[in-house]
Design a protein that fits this description.
The chain has 153 residues and is an all-alpha fold. The chain contains four helices and no strands. The radius of gyration is 17 Å and the shape is elongated.
Length: 153
């Protein structure tokens, strides 16, 4: 694979994941909270995540694959700057957080919505919101590191 293709795939994956979190956190969340009651809002979130999360998984695979390819192409872990190591470490933290969101909290949200049990569904969504906020913050930090990292080497 050409390094330019790997970088393109890497950047597009960041746009999908971090951009999706930004949209959900900054635009959809406040609009849904302002205009919809829990019986409408919670199914909206469950359906939104049902469509978004497969794209996150695809982005994660593309990020990890393209990132490791680029590290190898640049000479391996010993040859790349500390900022590349930081990006990888933070990306792995984001992946662990997302995995918890997906495998635990999202499943609770879907179960609560399916049973029309709004309190447990709302509690799961509240925890998802916090973790998406954390992941969004980390993702923005990783973008800063990616662009400005060479300045600190």
């Amino acid at each position: 694979m050409d390094q330019r293709i790997a970088v393109l795939l890497h950047v597009l994956s960041v746009v999908v994941w971090v951009g999706g979190m930004f949209f959900a956190y900054v635009a959809l969340r406040p609009a849904a909270a302002q205009t919809l009651e829990p019986p409408q809002r919670l199914p909206l979130w469950a359906a939104t995540f049902e469509r978004f999360f497969p794209w996150v998984w695809l982005s994660l695979a593309a990020l990890l694959g393209s990132g490791l390819y680029l590290i190898a192409a640049y000479g391996g872990f010993g040859a790349v700057g500390l900022y590349i190591h930081a990006m990888l470490a933070l990306g792995l933290v984001m992946t662990l957080i997302f995995s918890h969101v997906y495998f635990a909290l999202f499943q609770r949200l879907k179960k609560g919505v399916a049973a029309q049990e709004w309190k447990p569904a709302a509690a799961a969504l509240a925890q998802i919101r916090v973790l998406i906020g954390i992941n969004l913050s980390i993702g923005i930090a990783v973008i800063f590191i990616a662009i400005l990292g060479k300045l600190w080497v």
